[in-house]
Structures are given as structure tokens and as C-alpha cells.
Amino acid sequence: MTQEPASYTHFSAWDKEYSHVKWGGAAPIEPIRSRIPEGCRILDAGSGKGRHLLPLSNFYDCTGIDVSPTALKASREYLAKRDREAHHSVSSITHLPFADNSFEGIVCFGVLQHLMKNEREKAVAEFKRVLKPGGTIFLEVFGIKDMRYGGDAVEPHTFVRQSGIIYHYFTKEEIENLFRDFGILDIKDLITEKKFRGELHTRHMINGTIQLASEIDAKIC
């Protein structure tokens, strides 16, 4: 278990962001349900206002973490209104406050893209530490062909917006390299067209299902 740093400047921007981000409704979780048995422990790493945490809580022992106390407060309220429960913790994914081998699954949708290079590496190392052998990570990030690519560059393919939030755009190969110490990688480019103000623009997402290798055939849960 590693100690949370005093602060990351761009992390603090998220609390302001979540003060006006509206609840987007529960997100689909079918890919997770198809791989992780009910009753397992799942970490929603960067859970925001609980879009995935709410439906996951119907089937799993869930923990949601986020750097924004505002987001987690809203998440608690949404779950309580629907008579659902989940653990919540204010934490970054670079320094997870959990023991080794704590979770059978980790959900990380739209989060790694908001970190600098050294932070992304720390986060992946933490995922490996807290994930049980044979456990699975469900990942989604922005790709470099996305219409939103660009801004004030701070690192390769990494930009800072006026809000102070970091945006990094990945290649499939970068994700494969970042998770090279894991066992099974299923990484896919998802490229679609979106009409914006009458013009077509490219949306590029990269999805991953990543399993931590085990020396034995571990049966999770």
C-alpha cells in the first residue's frame, strides 16, 4: 500500500469540473458481467458520480475511488436513492489505499487519459499490485485519431486544457506496452464518425480487456 502524495495540481481541477457535470445515467456493464462472477470484489478506478458503480453494485462488492470529493458525494447520494451500497474513497489511481491482491476486477473507463506519463505508469503498477492473479481490468481511453486531439502540449500526445485537466491520446501499441507485464491483452481500436455542427469528425477510443497472469489456474471468487 503506497502513500498518497500531498497533491497533483491537475487532480484538483476535477472537483471544480464535477461541480457542474450532470449525472449521465447508469452505464452498460455487460462485458464485465460476462467475465466476472457475481459477488466478486470490483474496483471502479475513477468512479466519478457513479455511472458504472451504480449498476455494478447490483452484482458485486464494489469500491469507487476518485480524486474529487464532490463526485463521490454525488455518487453516494445516487446509490442511496436507489437503495444500493458501495464503498467510496477519495484517492488517485496512482496511489491506491488497498492491500495487495484485493480485487477480482478493475474498471477504468476514461481515466488513464487524464494522467501524465509517470502517473500512468504508477497507476498500472498499482493495478497489478491490487489485482488478484487471474483478475481482469476493463479499460477505455482516447485514441490519437480522436477529433478532440490537440491543445497546449505538455508531453507527447498530451495536452492541458484551460480547466487544468490533462488529456492524453493513446495508440494501441502504447496500451500494449503499458500493460506488458500482464498476461492476456485484448486491445481494440474503435473508430467512428460523429456529426458536429454539420461536419463529420472522427471519434477514436481504445478498449481493452486485460487479464493478470497466474502461475496456476486461479479460480476467482
UniProtKB/TrEMBL annotation:
Name of the protein: LysM protein
Organism of origin: Methanococcoides methylutens MM1
Organism placement in taxonomy: Archaea, Methanobacteriati, Methanobacteriota, Stenosarchaea group, Methanomicrobia
Keywords: Methyltransferase, S-adenosyl-L-methionine, Transferase
Listed Pfam families: Methyltransf_11 (PF08241)
Example GO biological process: methylation
Family annotation (CDD domains): AdoMet_MTases
MF (Gene Ontology): S-adenosylmethionine-dependent methyltransferase activity
Domain Methyltransferase type per the UniProt entry, residue ranges: 43-138
Top-level lineage group: Archaea
